[in-house]
Design brief:
By secondary structure, the protein is mostly helical. It is built from five helices and no strands.
Length: 125
């Protein structure tokens, strides 16, 4: 518990994540407590299941952390859908800009010989 308190002290997310990873590594390697390591995911929003998977021994049953893997995959799926939506919006905006550019290329205007500039009131021609 003292390690958890100290792990949250640094201001930088990267430093906090490194400390939490060290704690999780200790719990898995020294205490051999997989369930306790999985609980770290709830205690620290910076850690994800894929961050602590390398610490698990090869013989660990996936049933111990199946729910965390599923929720992580669902989160990735939501993120992918958000990115797809953003890409669709960007594509639509790009199409509108292309149409505007095409319309501007074909645009013309007429200037009379006695017309003055609207900004400086000097004769244009």
């Amino acid at each position: 518990d003292l390690a958890k308190i100290n792990a949250n002290k640094p201001e930088e997310d990267e430093a906090r994540k490194r400390l939490w990873l060290r704690i999780a590594h200790h719990v898995v390697e020294e205490e051999k407590d997989i369930k306790k390591a999985i609980e770290f995911l709830a205690d620290c929003e910076l850690l994800k299941i894929e961050d602590i998977l390398p610490f698990f021994p090869d013989f660990v049953l996936i049933d111990d952390f199946k729910d965390e893997i599923c929720s992580s995959l669902e989160e990735y799926n939501r993120h992918i859908e958000e990115l797809k939506s953003a890409m669709d919006d960007a594509t639509h905006s790009a199409d509108l800009i292309r149409i505007d550019i095409k319309d501007l290329r074909n645009r013309c205007g007429f200037v009379g010989s006695s017309q003055c500039c609207d900004l400086c009131d000097q004769p244009v021609l």
